[in-house]
Structures are given as structure tokens and as C-alpha cells.
From TrEMBL:
InterPro entries: Peripla_BP/Lac1_sug-bd_dom, Peripla_BP_I. This is Transcriptional regulator. Gene3D superfamilies: 3.40.50.2300. The lineage of its organism: Bacteria, Bacillati, Bacillota, Clostridia, Eubacteriales. Coiled coil: none annotated. The gene is degA. SUPFAM superfamilies: Periplasmic binding protein-like I. GO terms for molecular function: DNA-binding transcription factor activity; transcription cis-regulatory region binding. Residues 44-305 form the Periplasmic binding protein/LacI sugar binding domain.
Length: 334
């Protein structure tokens, strides 16, 4: 629609610029007659769709995909959706019309049924949570189990009352809900003497796009609120970026980590390894996941070129997480 300049259809300047850059990069040749616009690709290109690349979790996935894509002579285009279903759908439709070789979702699509329908015509691989209701090739982890791992770790350290801090918690962000549910289930086993305070801040796609440090800010601001509750001895951030905000709020309030408060995150992104940060986190094997997602997609791309191809098989690869304990967690202060 952008290339054909169809009347009555509008796109943001940013989307138009990215599409036209892709057209130039692909060396597309367009032949127009009265009834049809024919577009032919001379190179193979895939798209990686993710919420944003500010969080190193997603930028690491993108770079991991690019590492193996380059070895196979395939270029990669990256698109951020900021968790806006409308943007996601528009991107998919636009690049389907460009004869894209395939798509990798770095998160579960906001409309899995639409992506599932499209996967019969276009190779698609999803990196996301375990969800057997979605019939798409998936490289997955169990975020529920990740929550269980952190819950058990904090209970072993004597933390009876903890807080879980997160951006928007809703059905679109299933991984967030599953992490929380795993944490809740673990604490529930220990009875009423154990509790989880849940705090979240709703953010729109526009806010996420316009605020690069939004996850850090959410961790910081919500932590400041929870510090008023003196029974809480540990914090769990929805991810490592939120956990960094929590850490800064604790330090700015005159407390020490982990002497006064312990902190855990999820994803084990590379800054969590740094000695001054030393964050206890859940290892998600991000690079391996990115490599594997591309290899599955490449296999699917090759299959789609066969005349006898039928999209009847679904590949699911699940990675087992592990907890990496560092200096941000220690015994409860009482």
C-alpha cells in the first residue's frame, strides 16, 4: 500500500521511511500495468518484530538473529511495536505485501490468531512463553517456572514479605502475568504468614515510545511507594531493567543492598553481570534463543519453496531457565 501509494490509506512518516529503506535495500523492481502492481525481491530479507530495543533483552535477541542471518546471506529489518496491536498488524500486513522471506516475533504476538493464519502463507517463528493454544513454530521459555525459581530462592533466604513491581499487567503481556503467577503460587504454599505486594503502572504505547528509560523509572517510582511498608524485605522486578530502577530507589533512600533489601530480576541481560550491579536474575539463554529462532525460520523458508510443501508441522523448542545468584540477594534482615 505504501509502495503502490493507494489513495485513502495513511501511515506514519516513520513507517513510510522504514518501508522505503527496505525497498531500496532489497533492490525491489516494480512493474505496473493497469490492473496489477508486481513486486519482485532480488534478495532475501526477514523482519524481527519486538516491543522495543531499549531493553537489552530484545536488542540481544536481534543481534543474535543477525549473527546467524549474515552467515546465510539474509538481511534483517527490525521493527518496534511498543506493544501497540495496531502497529503490529500494520507492520505484518505491509511486509507480507513486500514478499518478505519470513518474520520472527521477539514476543508473543498481540493477536496470535492473526499470526497463526498468516503462518500458512509466510514463515513465522515466535519467541515467547509456552502456549500450546498457538499453532506457530515457537522458541519458548516458561515464565511461570521462572517465577517459581525466584520465589523459592527468596523463601530460602527467609523473605516472608516481598513486592513484585511491573509495568502494565494485562492479557496482552502474558509473560508478565505468568512470572507473577509462578511467584504467587510458590508463596501461597507457605500460608498466610507469607505475602506478595503487587504494584504496577499502566503505560500506553505512546508513553513507552516517548520515554526511553520508562522501565527503570517504573521500578524507581513504585519502589519508593513500597518502601513505606516496613515488613517488605525483598523486591522482584518484572525484568532486570525494572530491577535497576528498584536498586537506585533503595540506594537513594539511604538503604543498602542486600543488607536492608534484596532484589531479583528476570532475563539476566548483560549489565546484570557488571560488578557494581551484580543482580540476581533468571537466565533465559537469550543469544541461544535468537540463534535457534533464526535456524527454525530458515528451515521453514526453505520448505516453503518446495512445490509439495504443506504447513502441517509445528516446532516447539523450550529452554530451561536457571537462577543466577549474585550480590543483590541475601538473608532477610529479620
Amino acid at each position: 500500500m505504501i509502495i503502490t501509494k493507494k489513495n485513502g490509506v495513511t501511515f506514519s512518516p516513520e513507517t513510510i521511511e522504514k518501508v522505503m529503506d527496505a525497498v531500496n535495500k532489497l533492490n525491489y523492481i516494480s512493474k505496473t500495468d493497469k490492473s496489477q502492481n508486481i513486486i519482485k525481491a532480488t534478495n532475501q530479507v526477514i523482519a524481527v518484530i519486538c516491543p522495543n530495543i531499549t531493553n537489552p533483552y530484545y536488542s540481544t535477541i536481534v543481534q543474535a538473529v543477525e549473527q546467524v542471518a549474515k552467515q546465510n546471506g539474509i538481511d534483517v529489518i527490525i521493527f518496534n511495536t511498543y506493544r501497540d496491536p495496531k502497529i503490529e498488524k500494520r507492520i505484518i500486513e505491509t511486509f507480507y505485501n513486500l514478499n518478505l522471506a519470513g518474520i520472527i516475533f521477539a514476543m508473543m504476538p498481540s493477536n496470535p490468531q492473526f499470526a497463526e493464519q498468516l503462518s500458512s502463507k509466510l514463515p513465522i517463528v515466535v519467541i515467547g512463553d509456552s502456549d500450546y493454544s498457538v499453532h506457530i513454530d515457537t522458541v519458548e521459555v516458561s515464565n511461570y517456572n521462572a517465577g517459581v525459581l525466584i520465589g523459592n530462592h527468596l523463601i530460602e533466604l527467609g523473605h516472608k514479605h516481598i513486592a513484585f513491581l511491573s509495568p502494565t499487567l494485562d492479557h496482552i503481556n502474558t509473560s508478565r502475568l505468568n512470572r507473577l503467577e509462578g511467584l504467587k503460587a510458590t508463596y501461597k504454599k507457605h500460608g498466610n504468614d507469607y505475602s506478595i505486594t503487587v504494584k504496577s503502572q499502566n503505560i500506553t504505547p505512546d508513553i513507552e515510545r516517548d520515554n526511553i528509560s520508562i522501565e527503570h523509572a517504573i521500578g524507581y517510582n513504585l519502589c519508593k511507594e513500597v518502601l513505606k511498608d516496613k515488613k517488605v524485605t525483598a523486591f522482584v522486578g518484572l525484568n532486570d531493567m525494572v530491577a535497576y530502577g528498584i536498586a537506585d530507589a533503595i540506594i537513594d533512600s539511604g538503604y543498602k543492598i542486600p543488607n536492608d533489601y534484596s532484589i531479583c530480576g528476570f532475563d539476566n541481560i548483560f549489565p546484570s553481570h557488571f560488578a557494581p550491579v551484580s543482580l540476581t536474575s533468571i537466565e533465559h539463554c537469550i543469544e541461544d534463543i535468537g540463534h535457534n529462532a533464526f535456524k527454525i525460520l530458515l528451515n521453514k523458508i526453505n520448505e516453503y519453496t518446495k512445490p509439495q510443501f504443506k504447513n502441517s508441522s509445528i516446532i516447539r523448542v523450550e529452554y530451561e531457565q536457571r537462577l543466577v545468584q549474585r550480590n543483590s540477594t541475601g538473608p532477610a534482615r529479620y
